[in-house]
Amino acid sequence: MKKILLLTLMLTATILSFGQAKKITIEEIWDKYYFTPRGVPGYTAMPNSDYYTTVSRAGIERYSFATGEQVDMILTNADLNRLSGGSVNISKVSGYEFSSDEKKMMIAVDEESIWRRSTLAFYYVYDRENKTLQLVADTNTKLHFAFLSEDGQKVLFARDCDLFYQDMATGKITQITRDGQENAILNGYADWVYEEELDMSSAASWSPDGSKIAFLRFDQRRVKEYNFALYDNLYPTDFKYKYPKAGEDNSLVDVYIYDLAAQQLTKVDLGDNSNCYFPRVYWMPNSQEAVILKLNRHQNQLDFIRYNTVTKQQDIVYTDKNDKWLDVTDNYYFLKDGKTMIVTSERDGFNHIYKVTFGGEIKQLTSGNWEVNEIQYVNEAKKQIYYLSNESGVLNRDLYVINFDGKKKALISSGDGWNQTSFSPNGNFYRNQYSNLNTLPIYTIRDAKGKELRVLNDNKNVKETMGKYGFVDREIIHFTTDDGTELYGWMMKPANFNPNKRYPVMMTCYGGPGSQQVMNAYSSAYDLAFYQMLAQHGYICVCVDGRGTATRGDAFKKVIYQQMGKYEAIDQIAAANWLKKQSYVDGDRIGIWGWSFGGYLSALSLFRGEGAFKMAISVAPVTNWRYYDNIYTERFMRTPQENPDGYDLNSPTTYAKDLKGKYLLIHGTADDNVHFQNAMELVKALNEAGVEYDQFFFPNKNHFIMGGNTRTYLYNKLAKYILENL
Question: What integer is the mean pLDDT of 610-620?
Fold first, then answer.
């Protein structure tokens, strides 16, 4: 009865007596966005000057980096609406970019998602000098993408699986490919698994001088189809798409170069493409050479292949190797001399920066038992590299600068917290997003030395709202498990915490390879608000990053190789057992939940925890890695044919009979990423084991389980299940 009353209080937002904090509700989190930090809408650094733009209701505004003052309005909402004949206003603009001379803009309108990164949209070119707006392709069909050439004269775009370019002065459209077909041949944009696991959507690019186009062609015909029902009619629709599961065939991918003047299409001969990936193609500054990245199927060797588009000669200029796996990133910078690049690599056991001479010296510029997260800017004129790392603390992310010779390293940010930067093209300024464990994101403009010039958004209003609801601070916890593993976590205690009382604990986890949930940053604001709500109802909330997660080097991250899930679950169980030893924890009331990999990990931890947890919730979990896509899974596990025990001995379905405690399984039936098949296989195993469990499914919802009232309903269900079972 008491728990039902608490739930009623939570859902109706009853305000307690004067002077006490308001009660948080799911509706305020997911419908009204009371506790969601705001960013800087439309922020874009202009490519050839010290100005940046943002979007307001009035239009696209231009500001000076140096003074922070608004200079003018690039494009007003009124002009956009007028020039488009009333069909476009600023609220429909989903993105924009400038030509290198800043005279033209590409504007994306009415964007709609396909998969995680891919979209369809209408594209317009706005001529700033002539005040004209021109629809790309002049058709009612949305495009997969559209890119301006650097001079702004031509647009490259993809439509109906084929690739085209348009001369914007004449309006003439040239079709580059003619064999495109859905679920068969894709020209210039990625298939599902490349998009999801290699961070690609578009797979085509202009050469710097606009004379050539490089693109990938995906032949999907040998890839097996996955289908699921959409419950939308009397007879449900059967949706089909290409999805290569672990151990199965991928698309055959080829690299092509199109020469505009010669109207010639050339296939680059890169050898056998049946068991490899081509995750990136980069143009060199001379527009004659391209560097093509070729990754083997085991994903532990990455070759950088230089290809000359005139002579058709090629050579391998650099190879990165790892005895387990390596990650493809965008931290590859090719210098103007045409023979040097700046890269990151884990070759010494930690991710660091290297200066590579093509086919020659590999010089390490940073070193130590810490990790470079990202290269942010390479200043060739000053021979400096700006990068983010956790050298100041394993949970921090700070901005540093170092010379090309590895000397004069300097810390630019504060050395306490989490920074995300975006540099202007000339490197004189950058936008910084700073937060820490209990500070909301603060957006500022800074010069290259780190001096603050302007505050763009400090989220003061959101912070004040949180204050009215009595948000409490989190604290970092740090402990050593019985097997000697050091783990970090964060803990959120109720506002009226009494160390002499014993509290139930709700743990949250993700835990996937190379991820990080425990950081000196304010992240996952929606879920943090949810945990604040649980804290208001007397729960301690905890998150612990176990082995397999990021920023602590290869030995910590890659111990999971070929046995993904094993050590991750051991560490979550160890965290629960450590919590049981704390005098303020009710050791009989510890729960765990997660989404996607976290859903997998929460199930495995409950089933193998031997009573460490009273309950668990899995949302959209993988239940056996045999069912997941091959690029992600094989990176860490190799194929099921090579490593069957690695798959089956770390699957929750294998241990269904060992379920003790309450368990809730949630999944969307139209999940294109982690298929609903995973839930059904676990349900079958639980049924065969004859154990009690709970389940709830969302018809026609994908991996994100969003749309309409869905998220609110989902989190209300999570809250109710926790209150009633923990």
Answer: 97
Contact present, 57 and 42 (Cβ < 8 Å) = no
Tokens coding 710: 């869905």
Q: Give me the CATH number covering residue 628.
A: 3.40.50.1820
CA-to-CA dists, residue 359 to 38, 294, 362, 393, 457, angstroms: 46, 16, 9, 35, 46
Distance CA 551, CA 425 (A): 28
Q: Measured in whole angstroms, how far is the alpha carbon of residue 648 from the centre of its chain?
A: 28
Local confidence band at 4 (pLDDT 50, 70, 90 cut-offs): very low
What is the side-by-side order of every strand in the sheet holding 439-447? Answer: 418-423, 429-436, 439-447, 452-457
Dihedrals phi, psi of 381, to nearest 5 degrees: -60, -40
Q: Are 476 and 437 in contact (CB under 8 A)?
A: yes
pTM of the model: 0.95
Looking at residue 406, the DSSP 8-state letter turns out to be S
Cβ distance 386 to 377 under 8 Å?
yes
C-alpha neighbours within 13 Å on the C-beta side of residue 116: 17
Cβ within 8 Å of residue 579, ≥6 positions away: 505, 507, 542, 585, 587, 590
Contact 412, 401 (CB under 8 A): yes
Question: For the chain, what is the domain count?
Answer: 1
Token reading at 62: 């231009």
Which tokens hold the place of 610? 């031997």
635-674 pLDDT tens trace: 999 999 999 999 999 999 999 999 999 999 999 999 999 9
Mean pLDDT of the chain: 95
What is the token pair recorded at 252?
């055959």
Strands 615-619 and 585-595: parallel
Question: In 10 A of CB 48, how many CB atoms?
Answer: 13
The two beta strands, 225-230 and 212-219, are: unpaired
Q: Does 651 fall in a domain?
A: yes
Which value, to the nearest 10 degrees, does the dihedral of the CA atoms of residues 264, 270, 272, 276 take?
A: -110
In the block, which residue shows the tokens 């989903």?
94
Closest CA to 531 of 494, 583, 481: 494
Q: Is residue 603 part of a domain?
A: yes
- Rounded to whole angstroms, the Cα distance separating 45 from 525 reads 26
Please list, residue by residue across 582-600, b when 16 or more beta carbons sit within 10 angstroms of its beta carbon and e when fewer do. beebbbebbbbbbbbbbbb
CB 268 within 8 A of CB 247: no
Residue 257 domain-assigned? no
Query: Parallel, antiparallel, or unpaired for β 362-364 and 70-76?
Result: unpaired
Q: Is 484 a domain residue?
A: yes
Are the C-beta atoms of residues 492 and 535 closer than 8 Å to each other? yes
CA distances to 124, 194, 307, 660, 671 from 693, in Å: 53, 36, 57, 10, 22
Question: Which secondary structure element, helix H or strand E, spans residue 81, and what is its range?
Answer: helix 77-83
Find the DSSP H helices in 615-664. Answer: 630-637, 644-648
* Distance (Å, whole) CA 114 – CA 144: 9
**Tokens found for residue 143:** 């495009």
First to last CA, the chain: 14
Pairing of strands 93-98, 486-492: unpaired
Non-local (6+) Cβ contacts of 637 within 8 A are 246, 562, 564, 625, 643, 646, 647
Contact 43, 431 (CB under 8 A): yes
**Residue ranges making up the domain that contains 721:** 467-725
The pLDDT of 584-589, averaged and rounded, is 98
**Is residue 281 classed as helix, strand or coil in its secondary structure?**
strand
For 41, other C-beta atoms within 10 Å of its C-beta total 12
Q: What's the token pair of residue 552?
A: 């602590």
